[in-house]
Amino acid sequence: MNRRFFIGTLGSAAVALGAGRTQPHKPKYIFYMIGDGMGVAQREVAERYARMKYPSRKPRLVMNSLQVDGLTATVEVSGKVTDSAAAGTALACGAKTANGVLGLKPDLKTPLRSMAFDAKDAGMQVGIVTSVPIDHATPASFYAQVPKRSMYYEIDEFLAASDFDYFAGETMLGRKKAKGKTAPDKLVKTAGYQLVQDRTSFDALRKGDAKVVVEKDLGYAIEGAQDIPLADFTRKGIELLDNDAGFFMMVEGGKIDWSGHANDLATNVHETLAFDEAVAVALEFCKKHPDESLLVVTADHETGGLNLLEDKPLVSVIDAQKHQTSFYTRQVSKWKKEGTMDAESAYAELSKSFGIENLQGENKAEVLKAVAASLTDETTDTRSKEIQKMYGKKNAAVTSCLHALAAQAGAKWTSFGHTSTLVGTSAWGRWAEGFGGQNDNTDLGINLRKLILS
Ligand SMILES: [Zn+2]
Fold first, then answer.
1. How far is the CA of 425 from the centre of ligand 1 (A)?
2. Ligand 1 geometric centre to CA of 414 (Å)
3. CATH number of the domain that 265 lies in?
4. What is the spatial distance between Cα 362 and Cα 120, in angstroms, rounded to a whole number?
5. Residue 192 shares a structural domain with residue 52
6. Ligand 1 centroid to 376 CA: how many Å?
7. Do 163 and 204 belong together in one domain?
8. Number of domains, the chain
9. Distance 429 CA to ligand 1 centre (A)
């Protein structure tokens, strides 16, 4: 309501504030930050970890300290649990579509328009930033129109044709799908983009470097210092995009979702914190331009059905784990292949890796059983081939350890997929009120577009 009040009262004229400051009628700087798979429980467990790990740090999670909070519904067009393509389309275009579809109506033909194009047409510079491949569903929602999210090569063609100013994320998945066609890196170069693939060239990028694609694998935050973390992608985006007409930047924390699919709590917490560092960079900039900035932090859906049961001391278990799931899955597969590791020794090693050495009785017996099964069984992964392909194979021993770790941290995963629970949305800036209360995900897209077009 306040948002309408502002627009209605101020019309299109900028209001003079004195001392040379003017208050624009619409945001000059927009940050749209999306934690993929980041439900309220994911935010809360990261907040708890930060509270215990860094007792004097305030705020613990920047995204939990903004001016306005709300809840957002995420289901796709027919009411099913959404995937990131349908949810991304809702957030980017303000309209619902079917799972797997990017930027098209459920008829798979009628195009939907991403607000990023409206921002570009309004003269703003546009940045699309993510911690996963730049052509993955969430970022692609902002520039592509394809009936299937796996059409990575076609998505890369949209990327090259978008004319957006800054892309940053992991290696384009379309590279593997080029098959005799022009490779995606050539596509973007032909379209006038500078392709940056290492830290030195990244650091050398300066304001005025137009049309940049940064293609750099980030790895996982849990595995230590990242070569270029998401926060640096965001900071560089600000440096490159800042101009008199302002900018629109979408920033996605994509591996919160991946670790949710794996039920990997420690990795999930670290990914949420890494995303929050990017939010901190955005907020710091917004606070320097308080009359002109809008920051919206949301999620496309929840992943993993994470429940928080008790507020337990969780730092020691979270900190015990040094790698993300697939590292341990590979380790167990290797043991199985070599056939030299007995279940007790494998259990001893894994329980140390996950900080669960103190398991007793039934809890220990359950994990031990899963470890023994993983050393002999062909596969214990019952999820669909599609999910396995997208998120890696699941190993019973590792999953069992991850669940035991979560229990020690007072948490419980209830799904390996997405859920339809509401997600949290937080906002900061003069237009933040428009994102409070309970909204549908399409409302966020509609409200932001209205501001861009106002
Ligand atoms: Zn997912």
1. 18
2. 15
3. 3.40.720.10
4. 59
5. yes
6. 29
7. yes
8. 2
9. 30
Do residue 229 and residue 342 come from a single domain?
A: no
Residue 38, in any domain of the structure: yes
Say how many Å lie between the CA of residue 84 and the centre of ligand 1.
6
Residues 33 and 144 in one domain: yes
Ligand 1 geometric centre to CA of 282 (Å): 25
Residues 251 and 349 in one domain: no
Work out the angle at residue 156's Cα, subtended by the Cα atoms of residues 150 and 158, and round it to the nearest 5 degrees.
105
The CA distance from 452 to 284, in Å, is: 22
Q: Are residues 375 and 438 in the same domain?
A: no
**CA separation for the pair 240, 252 (Å, rounded):** 18
CA 374 vs CA 51, 332, 398: distances in Å: 36, 7, 9
* Residue 14, in any domain of the structure: no
**138/54 same-domain check:** yes
- Dihedral pair phi/psi, residue 34, rounded to 5°: -125, 115
CA of residue 296 to ligand 1 center, whole Å: 21
Q: Report if residue 39 sits inside a domain.
A: yes
Q: In Å, how far from its chain's centre is CA 344?
A: 38
For residue 242, tell me if it sits in a domain.
yes
Does pTM top 0.85 for this prediction? yes
Q: What is the dihedral of CA 22, 24, 29, 33, to 10 degrees?
A: 130
- For CA atoms 244, 278, 440, 144, the dihedral sign is positive
Q: For residue 420, how far is its CA from the centre of ligand 1 (angstroms)?
A: 12
Distance 140 CA to ligand 1 centre (A): 14
Q: How many angstroms separate the alpha carbon of residue 332 from the centre of ligand 1?
A: 24
Ligand 1 center–CA 358 separation, angstroms: 32
Of the residues 408, 425, 445, which one is the last residue of a structural domain? 408
- Regarding whether 324 and 218 lie in a shared domain, the answer is no
Please return the burial class of 431, using the count of CB atoms within 10 Å of its CB with bins 0-12, 13-18 and 19+. buried
Residue 170, domain extent:
25-307+417-453
Q: What is the pLDDT along the chain (454 residues), one digit of tens a residue?
A: 344 333 333 334 455 555 556 788 899 999 999 999 999 999 999 999 999 999 999 889 999 999 999 999 999 999 999 999 999 999 999 999 999 999 999 999 999 999 999 999 999 999 999 999 999 999 999 999 999 999 999 999 999 999 999 999 999 999 999 999 999 999 999 999 999 999 999 999 999 888 999 999 999 999 998 899 999 999 999 999 999 999 999 999 999 999 999 999 999 999 999 999 999 999 999 999 999 999 999 999 999 999 999 999 999 999 999 999 999 999 999 999 998 899 999 999 999 999 999 999 999 999 999 899 888 875 556 656 665 555 556 788 999 999 999 999 999 999 999 999 999 999 999 999 999 999 999 999 999 999 999 9
Report CA(382)–ligand 1 centroid distance (Å). Answer: 17
